[in-house]
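In the laboratory, one determines a bound structure by crystallizing the protein with its ligand and collecting diffraction data. In a computational setting the workflow is compressed into a single prediction: the sequence and the ligand go in, and a structural description comes out. We illustrate the idea with zinc ion.
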Amino acid sequence: MKTGIVYHEKYLDHEQSPTHPERKERLAYTMDQLIEEGIFDNPSIKLVEPYSATIDDVLEVHTKEYVEFLMRESKKGGFIDWDTNIPVGVFEIAMLSAGGAIRAGEVVLEREVKNCFAMIRPPGHHAKPYIGAGFCYLNNMAIMVRWLQKRGIRRIMILDWDAHHGDGTQEIFYDDDSVLFISTHQMPLYPGTGFPYECGTGRGEGYTINIPLPPGTSDEGYMMVLDEIIKPVAEEFQPEFIAVSAGQDNHFTDPITGLALTARGYAEIMRSTVELSEKYCDGMLVAVLEGGYSVESALPYTNLGIISAMAGLDLSCIREPLNYLPELKFRRKESALIKLERNIDEVKKVHSRYWKCFS
Ligand SMILES: [Zn+2]
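The predicted complex, in structure-token form:
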């Protein structure tokens, strides 16, 4: 079965400003790289066209007041926070972005493809029910998850590996035991949330798992998180569908974060995630693009690595920008691994009340 890639040229129309980290070149350069590598000529890849989400799809996650506010401000231009303004026309593109996530879920659910990468923007994981934030307007991931649940999928595991905590997604599913939300993120970093003790409420207690990564965390550290936390919890939760909030800002060249993952590391992490989806979900897996601001040096290669891993292609084509290797050395910190071990112990301690694998 094939791997889908959702993409639309209209995703390049959104711009807060030409120098904003979340700018159109993020996707334009990735597309150039994918074309250069012949990804779209590969028989195991299928390009999937998105459609717009409907207002009803969005209202499953966001309040009517916020949707009306966004629609209204998008006509004349407006403002949410210091790094998230509302450019004219953003509402339509945000609806196409949310619809792109839904479309990815749909083609996987209908088994047109095995798994799918929604290469969309604007991103979504900081958007809360009542307000956007941090470059995000609509929570694409949450909108897709609710769409899937309305079509009979009960247990969904979200793995949010963006370098920033997925505070919007966490808030949406905080009291929900049908969605296991696992977030790995650099701490300290925007938005400042995502401590291990934030573990859900009511029926959702135990179904939010936050794993803070110290600055300087490398591929090796991330693999430890996969082995120690993510894999055992997935085994116990038995998800029917896996959805990844794929933020590529853990890369060692990312200008607004301090982690030290490589493009190859990303591909390996995705390969492990694909294995989980094969074990529990008949391979059903969607990755939704979130952040990633090393626009030229890393994002095209990390996206290529993720897609290659999803499609089971040879990963030896995944390259690092060679001249940046001293930067990797500078960013990667040995002490990060020791701090990370402590964080993992803390996560296990908090969650030993909820998960047998940690008790
Ligand atoms: Zn991010």
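The chain has a mean pLDDT of 96. Keep in mind that any predicted model is a hypothesis to be tested, not a measurement.
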